[in-house]
Backbone:
């Protein structure tokens, strides 16, 4: 099996960053601590990033955006800003989850494990594909989705969202139902994050007609002519 989960702790306050990395180490993670946004962006690839937003050199949201642009590595943001707008902005920057400061160490570890479980596994090469591999293949067990034989690089939320839509192609799904299923029942308000994730999926699918917007209702997956949707791997 793989070694310990590699974490990058980005936190400028040494009275938090250093003991946090040590505590995570005792918990069985391989945690590296850096204190600036620049060091975070220059760090070696890890399995998951814990990112404090209040950094001395760069805006934490910008660091988040750049990390997300560079790789699908899950990001958990550590923030003391708890207003709703800020949370929506965070998720738009590509963060997978956030933990409000001050947080309990137990809660943080639980979040790390949950976010990692949902994450797309690092994929070296997928199983062999065939020429007539047309359409969307959703492998729920491996958490991988291929389109016409090419693996899509999805964030955990994008994977969950596309898997939900693909579970019943052609069926309209209501916004509230999607949010409850993909985020959770404790969702806190504005639903714009859903639209942001849909836009990202349309981009990655390469053809915006895959997902139809039903104004005031929700969304529907409409596979283009000749494209099949196949779910494998069980729920
Ligand atoms: Ca800080």
Residues:
């Amino acid at each position: 099996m793989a070694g310990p989960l590699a974490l990058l702790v980005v936190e400028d306050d040494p009275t938090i960053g250093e003991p946090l990395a040590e505590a995570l180490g005792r918990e069985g993670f391989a945690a590296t601590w850096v204190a600036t946004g620049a060091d975070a962006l220059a760090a070696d690839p890890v399995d998951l990033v814990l990112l404090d937003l209040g950094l001395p050199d760069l805006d934490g949201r910008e660091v988040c955006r750049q990390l997300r642009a560079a790789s699908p590595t899950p990001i958990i943001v550590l923030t003391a800003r708890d207003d709703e707008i800020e949370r929506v902005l965070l998720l738009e920057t590509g963060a997978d989850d956030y933990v409000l400061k001050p947080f309990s160490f137990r809660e943080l570890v639980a979040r790390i494990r949950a976010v990692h479980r949902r994450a797309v596994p690092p994929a070296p090469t997928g199983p062999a594909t065939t020429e007539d591999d047309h359409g969307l293949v959703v492998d729920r067990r491996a958490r991988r989705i291929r389109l016409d034989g090419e693996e899509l690089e999805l964030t955990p939320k994008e994977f969950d969202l596309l898997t939900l839509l693909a579970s019943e192609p052609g069926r309209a799904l209501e916004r509230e139902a999607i949010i409850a299923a993909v985020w959770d029942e404790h969702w806190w308000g504005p639903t714009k994050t859903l639209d942001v994730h849909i836009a990202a999926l349309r981009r990655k699918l390469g053809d915006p007609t895959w997902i139809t917007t039903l104004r005031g209702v929700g969304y529907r997956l409409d596979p283009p002519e000749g494209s099949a949707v196949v779910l494998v791997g069980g729920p």
